[in-house]
Amino acid sequence: MADRQGQFITFEGPEGSGKTTQALLLTERLQADGLTVVRTREPGGTATGEYIREILQHGRSGETVCAEAELLLFSASRAQLVTQVIRPALERGEWVVCDRFFDSTTAYQAYGQGFDLDKVENIHQFAVGSTVPQCTFLLDIAVSESLCRMQRRNAEQQTAPDRFEREALAFHESVYAGYHALARRHPERIRVVDATRPIHDIADRIWEELNDVLTRTG
Length: 218
Ligand code: T5A
Hints:
By secondary structure, this protein is an alpha/beta fold. It has a single domain (about 10-215), classed as Rossmann fold (3-Layer(aba) Sandwich). The protein has helices at about 20-30, 45-60, 65-90, 100-110, 115-130, 145-155, 170-185, 200-215, and strands at about 10, 35-40, 95-100, 135-140, 190-195. The termini are close together. The structure holds P1-(5'-adenosyl)P5-(5'-thymidyl)pentaphosphate. P1-(5'-adenosyl)P5-(5'-thymidyl)pentaphosphate binds near residues 15, 43 and 100. P1-(5'-adenosyl)P5-(5'-thymidyl)pentaphosphate binds near residues 42 and 199.
């Protein structure tokens, strides 16, 4: 891995599937290999993006954000992140590990909320241009299990569920189905990983899959 030019890697999956945990472990492993890695997240990763995150997750504006505005705000946060952080890092030859990216919008806003898939993908193209991940790990966990994990974590940390966690079960099932539809459409980019295994087994599997993807793409 050490002689590789910077790659763009993303983590996707439902709430509580372990994206943050695995993004951190992969970052540490790449760094241990001597690589410079930028780890970031969506929505967020820039001052503008973190502000947008507050508006979306915690209703910071004090009013209900309509679904159209929500879709555009996720995309706005992404455009800022790509311009300010991801593209410059890749141009410097660094690696980028991002917790969620445009597949989240496809899964949540197109499959979950029912926005037209082609329109959503046109917005992705406008927001990110050619900055597309080389490899995406989809952490696969049943909706019921991921929601249990989030409830456990909220209880441990005494935090309230955010507005996405409060969505109906049917919404989360549509998101789950959307992610798997995406994985079938992009088998060369999206690798599905069993997220119910112990944390370090998943990290080892991700490492193997990443090596495989990079070998195939040359
Ligand atoms: N959204 C986002 C959209 O609707 N459209 C978009 O375009 C975008 C970008 C963002 C919300 O916004 C929505 C999706 C989301 O609803 P978020 O904070 O990024 O919110 O999303 P979450 O997925 O909710 O992030 P979390 O940090 O809550 O979940 P993670 O990162 O998947 O999971 P993680 O690593 O924090 O782990 C969760 C808990 O599980 C444990 C951890 O220790 C932790 O307690 N855990 C495991 N337990 C057992 N076995 C394992 N293998 C475990 N791995 C982790």
